Each structure stands twice: as structure tokens, then as C-alpha cells.
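Hey, quick one: can you model this chain's 3D structure?
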Amino acid sequence: MITDANHQREMPSPVTALRREYPDKHALPMHSHAHGQLIFATTGVMEITANDRLWLVPPQRAVWMPPRVEHRMRARGSVALHTLYIRPDTCPARFADEPLSVPVSGLLRELILRVTTRPEHCDIHGHGIHMVPLLLDELHATSEPPLHMPNIVDWRLARICEAILADSSNDLSLEEWGRVVGASTRTLARLFRSELGVSFRTWRQQARVLAAVPRLAAGEPVIVVAADLGYETPGAFTAMFSRLTGRNPSRYFRR
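Sure thing. Here's the predicted structure for all 255 residues.
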């Protein structure tokens, strides 16, 4: 595990901004920061693993990473990353000690872009300091279901889930998977409930949403993504997406 030494020192300003660009599949190893971190990308999708969960962050969302929480990140597509490091004593009161999904409003997006145009690792000062209270006030926790998935312990369950994540159009039934991994349907159903907290069918739907997010964020039509993921109609895919995220694809990706 590594730490960002530049952010272990005391921050004189409530917020420090950083901007980075990463190519597709670029990975940042497990690390942590002394301060809270708001992770936001204007292009591409960031894959974030923290606290045994996998998150996908499209441009219309951000993830709050609490201080000293270990996490790693990987770029899906070319990513323009904008990060705010927030001093613990100025973190919004509703922000928890666990990673949190944050919707990015138009105002919040513009504030983030404005402060991250400063030099790298340069504390916000001068005119920028007047934007900090507004930026912190605009940050708020979301009530929408977060796009994350728990990590998996049982090797049989892991094999099934890895295969579905690799090919989200995979339509094998739980009974068919049982024959592949040598387990009964009842055993696999119990494992999905105990380790993942949902049924096999619901987990596969979540996997398909995760697979769809980077493609939809890149501008691919819903009809194409739905067909590739095995849905007979775009309406069926949209209904599933809405049920799991609280919004249909067009609203989810609206700036």
C-alpha cells in the first residue's frame, strides 16, 4: 500500500485540487490519503475498488473517498480525472466514513473544473478561496443506489461472476452454472444470497448495468448496448437499468 506524501502534510486551505489524464486501462495501485478525496472524471469511466467493493464512476457521478481509506483505481477509456482533496475538519457533515456515490450537478461540475485549472498540488487561494464554501455546500450525499459490487470469497461463485463480468451477455441459468462448477442450484443460490446479498438474477442484472455504464457514457446508443448485453428490446434494458439505478439511461447520463 502506498500513500501520497504530498497530501500527508497539513493543508493550509480547506481544498486542494489535482488534475490528471490517464490512458485506457491505466491502473493506480492500492493507496490512501490523509484527507478526504472527491474523485470525478469529465471523460471516460473510473473503476474504483475500496472496502471490498467495485465502483464504476461515469462523468455524471463522483465518488467520495474518506481519509485513510485504501483504494485502487483503473481507467476504462481515456480518463480526464479531476480530484479534490478536502481537509477532514471541513468535510461536509453528511459525508460518511465509507466511500459514497455523489451526483454531480451542473454547478458542482463547473466549480470542480474551475478549481482544478490551478497548478498541480497547489492549494486553492486568492479568488479560488471564495468558491470553496459554495463547492462544499453543493456537495451532497445521494439517495440513488450506488453502482458497486462486493468482492467474492467462494471460488465457485467467483468463477461464475468473473465469467459474467467478462461477457455480460452470458445467459446460462443457475442450473447450468451448477454443472460447470460442480455445485447444486440450491448451493449456488444460497451463496449468492449470503455473499452478495441478492439473487443470481439480480446480480447478473447489476453486472449488465456495470458493463453498460462505460459504453453509454461514451455515447453508444441504448439500442446497440441493449442488444449486445442480450436484451431483446431497448425497453427491457431501460426498465432494468431504471430499477437498479433509479433513473433511465438518458436521465442518468444527463449533465
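One thing worth noting: Residues 215 and 225 are 7 Å apart (CA to CA).
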